[in-house]
Amino acid sequence: MDILEKLAILTDAAKYDVACTSSGVDRSGQPGKIGSAVAAGICHSFAADGRCISLLKVLMSNQCIYDCKYCVNRVSRDTPRTAFTPHELADLTISFYRRNYIEGLFLSSGVMKSPDYTTEHMIQAIEILRTEYRFNGYIHVKAIPGTDNALVRRMGLLADRMSINIELPSESGLLQLAPQKKPEAILRPMALIRSGIEENTSDLTVYRHAPKFVPAGQSTQLIIGATPDSDHRILSLSEGLYDKYKLKRVFFSAYNPVVEDPLLPSVFSAPPLLREHRLYQADWLMRFYGFSAGEIVDAKNPNMNLAIDPKANWAIRHLDQFPVEINRAAYEKLLRVPGIGVLSARKIIQARRAGSLNFEGLRKLGVVLKRAKFFVTCQGKVSEGVVIDPDTVLRGLLSKNDLQMLPAAAGEQLAFTDVPDMVRVMGGVPVSAFGYLPEERVIQNAGKYEFGIHI
Ligand code: SF4
Fold it and tell me: Is the pLDDT of residue 426 over 60?
């Protein structure tokens, strides 16, 4: 098999990993035009300074001794198998870099022979890149669960970012769908990377030129919708991972049903993309807006309201905490107002030092008044014509975008003539049109420990 055939197989096999962001565009080159956006294994990620960088996203090998039921590379699947040698992968990466196709590498792999054997191959490839080719660009590498600590450390000194995918949000899901993966084998390297980063940070304060260990931090991925785990479980787990393992990101991947198995959703069901989108919004609230997982969803309402973004949903449920006076409210309170983001909250704090703000002033600062007007007062007054009751607020907050993203069956429930009913139906109670489980089954599992984290 020549190297381009290997590349085609191993980039295609890597596409289900979302632990870096990808455009998903699939537009090939056209005569008379420059460039193509065909899905050939180039994905995009963001550097610490906000730059968008393109990465070659590829597997070392799609050979795997494990049989994770949801995975296209599992051992029991009949599919062409191949593997790069470390030199092939390093050569390919550097030649793509020199042609300006990519700025970095995102490397993962199936488990060839054993986790240690696979990791040694990946390390060799990265070592060739770093030492022989003196490649100084970005490298994101997946750690294989169960790898020896010494190898994880070696890899951490070569890569910028490492990630270990938890994949399934519950131990029971892991047991059913990926029985060869043990929680301990996933969490041990995660803890090792966390402590390695902490030690390295303190070393660097003393020895400025000490080698850096995973300088861009670590991340993980959770598959959404392959198991009946609720949003409450997923967000509580994410919160625990941020706290305990200091992850930079938890990525959510809507389960794409490519495998027929009685334990998995049917191959004819659509990936829960809207749910994935809401989870990313909730994750954003936890990381930048001071929300806890328990404020967004709880054991009583274990799933998010898909019809509306989680911040607006929280605000509607807590109308008693509004309106807030824009000229006096603390930064944390401002962040809770739909239509006010981190940037506009900072601008409000700064601007009101110079004088009292009114609604026109808020608009100029970038506040989305269409949303914020239901939740704020300026100089003690509400915006002209605004009535604050749950129905009106909900009508005002649902964007066209929100409605367009809803699955057709759920969209039918969104008749504006029936708004109170919609709140009741969609206020966190699972709706069969969204493919959620009945609430009681989710509640049964609430309050347990998963992955050593109380959920
Ligand atoms: S270990 Fe990874 S590559 Fe192998 S079957 Fe499981 S998910 Fe797929």
Answer: no
